[in-house]
Amino acid sequence: MKVPYLDLNIIHRKLKSEFDMVYRDILQSGWFIHGKYCEIFEKEFAAYCGVSECVGVGSGLDALRLILAALEIGKNDEVIVPANTFIATILAISYVGAVPVLVDADEKTFNIDVRKIEEKITERTKAILSVHLYGKLSDMDSICQIANKYNIFVIEDACQAHGAERNGKKAGAFGDAAAFSFYPGKNLGALGDGGAVVSNNKDIVDKVRMLANYGSIEKYKHIYQGYNSRLDELQAGFLFVKLKYLDEWNLERRRIANIYNERIQMKNNGSSGKNDNVVHVYPVLTKHRDNLKSYLESKGIGVNIHYPIPIPMQAAYRKHGWNRKDYPVTDEICRTELSLPLYPGMAEWQIEYVVDIVNEYMIREGVYGRK
Ligand SMILES: *Cc1c(COP(=O)(O)O)cnc(C)c1O
């Protein structure tokens, strides 16, 4: 493989001695859950996001589920959510017994189309769960305005958007609470699973903290029927090491996205290298997606599709009777999206190679009406 879709070794190699130190420290302390690294990482990640509270949990999915549970959203409640997202966003809603109400994507940003939210609001709507997909902040001003009008919660799925910001405000600081994932491939990834809930509302975070630890605040005293979903101490230690580099890595992601923007003439989600996009994924849309994918792979370039099957068509959700025709933009994205390789540490020649091979294909197929 000349250009893998993602190569974590490049950044991890440089951090080996810092990781080793954390590991030795924790092994020696004999404290593996809720120790000092967990505490300091929570503090630093809250500060990074510009919020007052953070609690580490087991995964991004758990972070979403715990927020919904803490807000007492459950049976018979409805949650507005984009149709164009990763399955975990929807699963979290199902897990608490609520109903996901899908809204189609916006053609320009590929995020939730805010013009289509109000028509989906009913007496049962309890929250808008917005996703900053591919690393691009969704239109939080409009979303918060609508939520205020109907007095419902705003939850952010920021699992792909660590560090994205608009007017100085970061992903995670817009809604009532936000979920982050530290799955290894995310912009800030652990060396295993992990997640966090951030918020400016201490009551919500205190409740998430309890729910994630058997519903207990005091050992063997259980206030809620909670879960076990904790950020383990080793992962917190590794994340503490990596957080210092997040801005640098995001900057590099934007720099590469800018090169793609300038040199590849294909529709994308406005990955214009602005701060509101930390380019977790660099998506392009083309009708030639499947052939282009095969061609790039044959030339040693790793690519991905985010996501090949739209939520309305997932077998797990057959019982909802959703129809892909009701979500035409989401459907179009799923049929035509291709994610190009993009990661910190990508070599200049690799970036050039991707640009050249993509353009070679598009010109050969006569897709570009130029040159
Ligand atoms: C990764 C991801 C999640 C789930 O995170 P996990 O840590 O894998 O549970 C949720 N939502 C979105 C948009 C994601 O990309």
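^ pyridoxal-5'-phosphate complex. The first helix runs from residue 9 to 14. Residues 59-61, 85-86, 88-89, 131, 157, 159-160, 181, 183, 193, 195 surround pyridoxal-5'-phosphate (CB under 6 Å).
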